Structure formats: structure tokens, C-alpha cells
Amino acid sequence: MTADAQLADRARTLDATDPLAAYRSRFVGHDDESVTAYLDGNSLGRPLAASVDRVRDLMLQQWGGRLIRAWDEGWLALPERIGDELGRVVLGAAPGQCVVADSTTVLLYKLARAAIAARPGRRRILVDRDNFPSDRFIVEGIAAECGLELDWLEPPHAGGVTAEAVRAAVGPDTALVLLSHVAYRSGYLADIPSITTAAHDAGALVLWDLCHSAGVLPVELDAWGVDLAAGCSYKYLNGGPGAPAWAYVRTEHQHFQQPIQGWLGSTEPFEMGQGYQPAGGIRRFASGTPPILGMTAIQDMIALIDEAGLAAVRDKSVALTEFAIEAVQAALADFGVAIASPLDAAERGGHVTIDHPAFKHVTVRLWEQGVIPDFREPDGIRLGLSPLSTSFAEVWRGIAAIRAELERA
Ligand SMILES: Cc1ncc(COP(=O)(O)O)c(C=O)c1O
Ligand SMILES: Nc1c(O)cccc1C(=O)C[C@H](N)C(=O)O
């Protein structure tokens, strides 16, 4: 058997013995033959068939039938109701600490400003140079706005941000540390508990960006002592394009003041009174009218993760990334393709990034033939493997297609 036939055979065996394989059929488009391999579930997760029904019901029964009455009949409470479910199933958070609102970018701003205000007199923010642009741009803006200084964790930090690096960089003047749980490019998985402790030992707060971890690996925000966190819901939470983000604020920090003082974060919105009085609890971190259509589909993925179990989802995620690495090493190493993600599964999230100078051009050709990974500058193809909707066969088809394009290049 050729090496290729062996990999194709292994993919078939892995799919045949995958205890979560049947979940794939619950997603719209799983049988669309024009998509040879969807490897971008960490940018935009596939829709669930259940969400099509839920959105239809929302439009016909709730919006169409109940009209404005639907706000009182459930819509106004939805950001916290979904937040509680997210906390229970995905984030390891007791009720009353999560809310769905805004975008991740806006929530990161609100939470970072709230944290800065809660550490008066401290003048520094620690941030990772390799963090996602929004995260970096937000603290750059806040530093300019509030007259603060930024400290940068510079790469390489032996693969990713470690507790030792954070401990060495924080001090009595550090107000806030802003980091990602899973790095958007490399997929490096940061150790939240030890990094949070390192920051707390210096009296700083930590804001965690969980965009690339929520829904793909177990998270225990309460148990890990996390202060503040935010993440998006259109990746592994399959909420759809532009679905609103979520924020976690630990109960003991819910007296923090957030900067976007809107009526729906105030005590009695419908009194329309003078002077902003922040609501109690997590509701004070909301600002304006909740995007009900946008947050509707998230509920189906939370329910699906609940059904499958996050530990099983992580097992499949590890198996998918292990197989991707094995296939890249076997099929692409001879072309000079380098693996930019950690090789140790314990240090890796749900995606694998591989680098090659031809990948920008290769990605265009892949998309034309229905093989859909992400390209990330300067030369990375990011294979985003969504455990409940990605098959091992898909991973192999994607990697075989990359090799075919490199052969032509
Ligand atoms: C790690 C990370 N942080 C923040 C964002 C920004 O999210 P949004 O565009 O929803 O504000 C993204 C993705 O876009 C991301 O991957
Ligand atoms: N939010 C996105 C969008 O509106 C268009 C294209 C991609 C995205 C993404 O989510 C990118 C993603 N956060 C990343 O890690 O690269």
C-alpha cells in the first residue's frame, strides 16, 4: 500500500470508530459534494439543521406572531439565559456570570476598561505581541485614552505565553493582563490557572480571550479563578456570521464599572429616568438592545455540546489535530512545509497551522475546488477542525489537495 493509501485508510478507520461521527449529519451542508473539505470551523462554524427550525420559529411565531410582546415574553432575558447555559455547558461558570452581547471586540474593550478602573493608580497593561489584532488594538487605544503604558510579551516564548513569562513581566504597577487561551494563529494553548495565579500574585487582573477555545475544549472559569473573559460564538459555538459574543465577569467583580453606559445595563430601563444607575449582576455589562436573531442559533450548539459532552469533544479534537499533524508530516514535509502549532496535544487547541511561502496562492486555488482552510499572514494555512462537524476523511482530502497544489507550484 502506498503512503497515501495508508493515510486514506487510516482516515476511514478513524471515522468508522469515531464515537461522535454521527453528529456530523446534524449540520447543514454535511453532504454538499461541492465542499470537499471544510477546514475553517474556527472562523465560521457550520449551521445546525436545528437552528434553521429555531430561526424559522423565531420569525414566524415569536416576531411575526407575538410582535413587541415577545420582549417581555423572553427576549429581554435571553442574553442572560443563554449566558447561564453557556456557563453550565461550555465555560464552567455558575449562573449569573455570563451574558451574550456586542462583539468580542466591543466586550474586550468594556471589560478591559472596567478592569483598569478597578485598579486605580496602576499604570501598566501586559499584552502578547502575537495576540489577535483586536486585542492588541484595544489596549493600544485604552493606553492612549487613559494615559497608561503597555508591556509586550515578545515572541518567541517557547511556543506560547507561559506563567514564567507572565510572572517575570508583571509588577506592582500592572493593572491588567490580556491574553488568549488558544492563540489564533499557532493554536498554542495557554495554561489559564497558572498564568492567572502569576498575575494575581502581583495584584493584577487578567482578561482572557476565549474565541478559539469556547466549545472545543473543557474550560473551568470559576475553578481557575478567572476574573474576566470574553469570546465569540460564531466559531465552535456555531452561532452564525456576526453572532454576538459573550462575556464572563466573576461574581466578586460585578461591581466593576463598564464604560458603555446604556439603558439596558441600567437598573430600570423602562423608567427612562435621569442619571445612569448600573443594574446589579451581570446585566450591568450589557449596553443596548440584545441582537435576538443573532443569538438564536447559539442555543442549538450549546445543546449539542451538552449532548455529546465537552470531554468527548476534546478527545475528538485531539484525535483530529494528531491525525492532521501525522498527515502533514507524511505528505507535506518533503515540500518544506513547517508545522507552526505545538506538537504536544496538551499544548494545542483545536486547530493546526502549517507554513509555506506558497500558501497564499495555494489557498486561493484550494477554495476554488471546495477545499476551505484559512490563510493567515505571512504564510500560514490554518486547519480549523470542528470536532462535531469535521471528519477524518475531510482532513486527509484537504491535506492531499494542499500537496497536489504544491506539486503544481
Ligand atoms: C482571538 C480573537 N479575538 C477577537 C476576535 C474578534 O472578534 P469579533 O470580530 O467578533 O469582534 C477574533 C475573531 O475575529 C479572534 O479570533
Ligand atoms: N470574524 C471574521 C469575519 O467577520 C470574517 C472572516 C474571518 C473572521 C474571523 O473570525 C477570523 C478569526 N477570528 C481568526 O482567528 O482569524
Question: Summarize this, please?
Answer:
The protein is of the alpha/beta class and 409 residues long. Helices cover 40% and strands 13% of the residues. It is built from 13 helices and 13 strands.
How would you portray this structure in words?
- By secondary structure, the protein is of the alpha/beta class.
- The chain has two domains: 3-47 and 309-408, Aspartate Aminotransferase, domain 1 (Alpha-Beta Complex), CATH 3.90.1150; 76-305, Type I PLP-dependent aspartate aminotransferase-like (Major domain) (Aspartate Aminotransferase, domain 2), CATH 3.40.640.10.
- It is 40% helix and 13% strand.
- It has helices spanning 3-16, 49-66, 69-75, 78-91, 104-117, 133-146, 163-169, 192-201, 292-296, 298-308, 310-331, 359-368, 392-408, and strands at residues 37-38, 98-101, 124-128, 149-153, 174-180, 205-209, 228-231, 245-249, 338-339, 351-355, 371-372, 374-376, 380-384.
- The strands form three sheets. The protein has a seven-stranded mixed β-sheet, with helices on both faces. Strands 9-10-13-12 form a four-stranded antiparallel β-sheet, covered by helices on one side. The chain has a two-stranded parallel ribbon with strand order 1-11.
- β3 (124-128), α6 and β4 form a beta-alpha-beta unit.
- The radius of gyration is 22 Å and the shape is globular.
- The protein starts with a helix and ends with a helix.
- The structure holds pyridoxal-5'-phosphate (PLP) and (2S)-2-amino-4-(2-amino-3-hydroxyphenyl)-4-oxobutanoic acid (3DJ).
